[in-house]
Each structure stands twice: as C-alpha cells, then as structure tokens.
Design brief:
- The protein contains two helices and four strands; from the N terminus they run ααββββ.
- By secondary structure, the chain is an alpha+beta fold.
- It has one domain (19-114).
- Strand 3 and strand 4 form a beta hairpin.
- Mean pLDDT is 89; it is low at 1-9.
C-alpha cells in the first residue's frame, strides 16, 4: 500500500501550524476505525505523498520542538510541503497509525524549512 501524488490536491484538509487543529481536520476525513485504504486515498487526493512504514519510529514535532517519540509502530507516512515564501516552506508529516488493519491514531509533525 504505497503511493505518491502530485503536489496539488483538492484541499479538503485545512492545514495550519497547530498540530492539534491539523489532527482534528484529518479526523474529519479519516475517522478512527477507517480502513487504511480509505486513509491513503484521502491523503493522496489532498496532495500528500504517502508510504507505508512498518515497525518504525515517528517523532511528533511542532516548530522544531519534539513533543513525543513513538517507537515500533506501523503507520501510513504522509508528507506535504507548501511554499511560505521564496526561501521557506511549511512541512507537515503525518503518521496514520495502523492497528488491526484500521486507523488507530493520527500523529502530526509540523515545521518550516528554509534554504
């Protein structure tokens, strides 16, 4: 269950620097208990690039500060960047955690990347 998408999407998920708000937005489209296939479809349609990660680590960050580290989890990793300025972009990294082949949790990491 891997895939990728173009950088454009329908934009159903409202993104912000607030991890809690982003998680709430994703849960509106991908409620807990949803199939992983549904989760991947929604994220790809929204312009994320996704790949399945098995028994891996995911670090939740908000503006480069670590909030939590999750070890040994299976999740659909989804990544999206949006331009903020000529030199900087915003980046959202999402882990849609899988347990018993359904969505069990949503983890969010947000930061800015500047060159």
């Amino acid at each position: 269950m891997t895939g990728s998408a173009c950088s454009h999407g329908m934009g159903r998920i409202s993104l912000s620097p607030d991890n809690t708000k982003v998680k709430e937005e994703i849960l509106k489209q991908v409620p807990l208990g949803s199939s992983m296939e549904h989760a991947q479809k929604i994220m790809l349609e929204d312009g994320f690039q996704c790949t399945m990660m098995l028994n891996e680590r995911f670090i939740e960050q908000e503006n480069h500060f670590t909030k939590a580290t999750h070890e040994g989890i299976d999740y659909l990793y989804c990544d999206k960047e949006k331009g903020k300025s000529f030199f900087c972009s915003q980046r959202w990294q999402i882990a849609i955690v899988r347990r018993n082949n359904v969505v069990a949790d949503i983890l969010v990491s947000y930061g800015t990347i500047c060159v």
